[in-house]
Write a structure and sequence with these properties.
Mean pLDDT of chain B: 93
Structural class of chain B: mainly alpha
Distance between the termini of chain A: 17 Å
Number of strands of chain B: 0
Largest sheet of chain B: none
Helix content of chain A: 25-40%
Radius of gyration of chain B: 11 Å
Largest interface: A-B, 10 and 11 residues
Mean pLDDT of chain A: 97
Shape of chain A: globular
Number of helices of chain A: 14
Strand order of the largest sheet of chain A: 5-4-6-7-1-8-14-13-9-10
Oligomer: heterodimer
Distance between the termini of chain B: 10 Å
Low-confidence stretches of chain B: none
Chain lengths: 413, 78
């Protein structure tokens, strides 16, 4: 029998707010979460702006000992997981623990810890490297700590597929549940890479916006003045469950996960191929997985990074897949507000797509002041739009040529 | 500040335990909830604070707070 998968909980820590609710309110208000970098002195860096987590109290989620040892990415994952489990009313106990799994992707893991400990070894020698270095750096320790904290003993995994990590983690989780390997999964993505090495590294690739004087205007997907993405940090997690188990415990259902597509460009380590055939194939694969027609899709939460190439090619790929229906589609990039949370993007954007369905609100693309002629879809400029959405698609693409797409549907029973 | 007080202050901070729990005979692992990684980190903190080196052999003999204090005294720390 076909096992259906529903979303029953959200947890998020993002530049727009330290809960899923605040994040969603920021999205609906068209607010930017981007500002000057405060986490390190960015004086010498080309890029001096980022989407940082603000006013977050880690001690609400970890004790002082953990705070010292855990990388921020792990703390964000713990915070989002606790909030998601509470939102879902999920109780993990001796009876269900082995049927609850964790799938949390991360692009870079504990980069800031790696940078800190590298300084220690250079300055003071190998004897001064913390015994907590490796467990704070490993990308799967977000998932690891969440499983320890919540005592979830089912399948555990961590997708490391760059900016598609969160989407792959959710897609994998959906397949875990569909295949009968788990009843419930806590799934999404996390990253905390607003660090000197990440910013310098992306700068060296000319991937980041250098619109330092107008941080809130810097992330401008599909706009003719876009000049790169804005790096952000945070976490977005879902509680996903098999429908009958969600019904049995009377859980509130936000939306249903109905399709997942994953393809590779097999082309270049960072650049998408012209026309972005890999992205188009991924969208088609997700549609086929969901068993729906392109014309059934109402809204696409685009990858929309605000880089010159992505936005143009993603637009071309959408047109190739949706044909005439692409003009009827609403397409928006919420990265215009959140910035690009790297491996967390897929997690946060899955929440946004599901909230859009649940609340009948299409999120806007802010800063779309001078649309690029090569980007000619309805990107829902400036302001959110009230409209019923039955089916939403979420696109994320990552370095290495990874294209991951999820499809969500309104739950109607 | 007396050596005992300083050592206990570091231990309470590092292991996030109450000072009252840090009696001299308290075992790091059995009484203060530390694991082997906690202990490694604590020893590094002691080395840093008291400018001493603790070898792996010496580390094997350190189980309690008193062991740390005794060790530091043998190294001439006052």
């Amino acid at each position: 029998m076909h096992r259906r998968i529903v979303i029953t909980g959200f947890g998020a820590v993002t530049p727009l707010g330290n809960t899923a609710r605040e994040t969603w309110e920021g999205i609906c208000a068209g607010r930017s979460g981007i500002g000057r970098i405060t986490k390190f002195d960015s004086q010498a860096f080309e890029t001096k702006i980022a989407g940082e987590i603000k006013n977050f109290d880690p001690l609400s989620f970890v004790n002082k000992k953990e705070l010292r040892r855990l990388d921020d990415f792990i703390i964000y994952a713990l915070a989002a997981a606790e909030m998601a489990a509470a939102d879902a009313g999920l109780v993990i106990n001796g009876i269900n623990a082995e049927r609850v799994g964790v799938s949390i992707g991360s692009a870079i893991g504990g980069l800031s810890t790696l940078e800190k400990e590298k300084k220690n070894i250079l300055r003071f020698g190998p004897g001064k490297v913390s015994p907590f270095t490796i467990p704070a750096v490993l990308a799967n320790l977000g998932a690891g700590h969440v499983s320890i904290r919540l005592r979830a003993k089912g399948p555990i995994n961590c997708s490391v597929t760059a900016c598609a990590s969160g989407t792959c983690a959710i897609g994998d989780a959906a397949r875990m549940i569909a295949g009968g390997y788990a009843e419930t999964m806590i799934a999404g993505g996390v990253d905390a890479a607003v660090t000197p090495l990440a910013v310098a590294g992306f700068n060296a690739m000319q991937a980041l916006s250098i619109n330092n004087d107008q941080p809130e205007k810097a992330s401008r997907p599909f706009d003719s003045k876009r000049d790169g993405f804005v790096i952000s940090e945070g976490c977005g997690l879902l509680v996903m469950e098999e429908l009958s188990s969600a019904r049995q415990r009377g859980a509130r259902i936000y939306a249903e996960v109905i399709g997942y597509g994953l393809t590779s460009d097999a082309y270049h380590l960072a650049a998408p191929p012209p026309g972005h055939d890999g992205a188009a194939r991924s969208m088609k694969a997700a549609l086929a997985d969901a068993g729906i027609d392109p014309a059934d899709v109402d809204y696409i939460n685009a990858h929309g990074t605000s880089t010159p190439l992505n936005d143009k090619y993603e637009t071309e790929a959408i047109k190739a897949v949706f044909g005439a229906h692409s003009n009827a589609l609403a397409v928006s990039s919420t990265k215009s507000m959140t910035g690009h949370l790297l491996g967390a993007a897929g997690g946060v954007e899955a929440i946004i797509a599901a909230k859009a369905i649940d609340e009948s609100i299409i999120p806007p693309t802010i800063n779309l002041d001078c649309p690029d002629p090569a980007c000619d879809l309805d990107y829902v400029p400036h302001r959110a739009r009230r409209k019923e959405i039955n089916i939403a698609m979420s696109n994320t693409f990552g370095f290495g040529g990874v294209n991951a797409v999820l499809i969500f549907r309104k739950f109607t029973g | 500040m007396k050596l005992e007080e300083k050592v206990i202050g570091i231990i309470a901070e590092q292991l996030d335990v109450a000072r009252e729990q840090c009696v001299p005979e308290a075992s790091f692992i059995d009484d203060l909830g530390a694991d082997s990684l906690d202990l490694m980190e604590l020893i590094m903190e002691m080395e840093e604070n008291f400018s001493v080196q603790i070898s792996d052999e010496e580390l094997e003999n350190i189980r309690t707070i008193q062991d740390v204090i005794d060790f530091l005294r043998t190294k001439g720390v006052k």
